[in-house]
Structure prediction request, 111 residues.
Amino acid sequence: MGVRRFEHFSRYNTLLRAVARLIHIASTFSRSTQDSGCQGWHICKKSRSQEDLEKAKIIVLKCTQQDAYSEEIKNINAGHPLASKSPLHKLHPCVDANGLLRSVVALCSQS
Ligand SMILES: [Zn+2]
Prediction:
């Protein structure tokens, strides 16, 4: 999913609901959810579940970070140090279990 598609949405929450709807539809194609009453391409209120909205947030953030910091993410995942010219260099970023960039400095300063 390219981030340029996100530009079609003027509101963040509308984008999240659209991505959550896609997540819900994709999940209905798997066998494990076919008995929930949802199948294939459809629109229903179940696509606005908190779980699907949280997944949508992660996907939107991940795509946006990948677009802006692909080189940094590649280096972190390979265990290589970031170039000193990188805007993230002083933040000592890491990649969390969801594949999102996180700043060790920001995490430490919150506590
Ligand atoms: Zn549904």
